[in-house]
Amino acid sequence: MRLFHVRPHDWWLPRLWRKFHAFWTQGARQQVTGAGVAYTVALAVVGSGAFISTNNLLFLIFAAMLATLLISGFLGRLGIAGLEISAMVPEHISARRNIRATIRLRNLKGFVPSFSIHLSGSKESGLTSVLYFPTIPGGATLEEPVELYFPKRGAQRDRTFQFSTRFPFGFAERREMVTAQHDILVYPCVDAQAGFDELLSGVRGELEAKQRGRGPDFYRIRPYEALESARHVDWKATAHTGSLQVREFAREQDNRAIIYFDLDADSDAWFESAVDCAAFLAFQLTERGTEVRLRTQEFDVSVPEEGDVYTILKYLALVSPMRGKTPAAPDDLTCYQLILTSNPQRMASLGWGAGQDRGARVLGPGAFSESVDR
Prior knowledge:
Helix content: 25-40%
CATH superfamily of the largest domain: Immunoglobulins
Number of domains: 3
Number of strands: 17
CATH architecture of the largest domain: Sandwich
CATH class of the largest domain: Mainly Beta
Largest sheet: 6 strands, mixed
Strand content: 25-35%
Oligomer: single chain
Order of helices and strands: HEHHEEEEEEEEHEEHEEHEEHEHEH
C-alpha cells in the first residue's frame, strides 16, 4: 500500500495553476489562440444559458459547439502526427554563408493527409525561414528548397525542428518537436571579413616577390639591373624597347607558404577570429595554386601533397585552444611564413618570422585586430 504525503503548502490550486501556466507558455505542445478563447467563452455562455433556462434548443447548440471543439482538437492532433523530416545538405558547408539545401517532408500516415502545416527550425538547425505546406497527402514525400545559415563552426548532429498547425478551425495551435539526427560539419567562415582582403593582397605580393628567380618557368620581362649576367638579356625585347630587358623566371619550389597557428591563446574571441583568418588564407591561397602547409601544436598537413584544402578546413572546424601547450620551432626556413599567435615574442624566440627577407608575417593580437577591425 502506497502512502502519499501532502505538505501543508502544496495545495491543489497552486499545482493546477502551474500546470495551466506550463500549458499556456510558448513551449507547450498546444497553445490556445485568440479565436479559441473567444469560442470557449461563447461555449460557456451558451452552456450556462442552456442549464439555467433548460431550453432544448440551447442544449442542442451547446452540444454541437462542444463536439466542434473536440473534433477540432482531434483533427489537429491527427494532422500533425506521423510526419518525418530530413535535410539534404551540401558536402562542404561554411559558417556565416547561406547555403542551398533541400528539406524532405514525409507523411507516414498511409491514407490520412495533413493540412496547413508550418515548419520552423531552432537556431542550431540552420533554418531561418518558416515553411508552409497547405496539404501533405497520405504516404507522400514533399521536397522544398531552402537556404540554411549556420553562424558558428563545429559539428552539428541534433537539429530541432517544429511542426505546428491550427487546422481545422484555428481554436488552438498544435506543436510537435522533432529532431533530425545527421552529422554536419560546419567549416569556419572562408569569406572575406574586414581587413582580410588587404592582408591577402599583401601576402600575394610578397609571395610573388619570392617567386622571382632563375627557375625553368618564364615569369616576366623586366628592365636590366646592374651586375646581372648578360646571358639572361632578351635581345628581341631590348631591340623593341630600346633599353636592356632581362628574362625572369619563377622558382616553383618557392611557391609555398606555411601557416603556423599557435593554439596557446589567451582570448577565445581572438582565437575564433584567428581560426577564420587561417581558413580564409588557406582557402584563397590554395585556389591560386600556392602550396599551403598548416601546422599547429597537434596538426601538420601539406596541401596538395597530403590532402586538399578541405582537410585543413575540417581540422579548423573542430580545433580548440590548447592553453599551456608550447609551439614548436620552424623546420623549414625556405617557404613563406604566416604566424597566427597571441604571443609574438615567444614565437620570435623560437625562430618564427626571423627570416623577414624570405617573407614572413606575424599576426599577433594587435596586428591581427588592426587588420580585421579597420
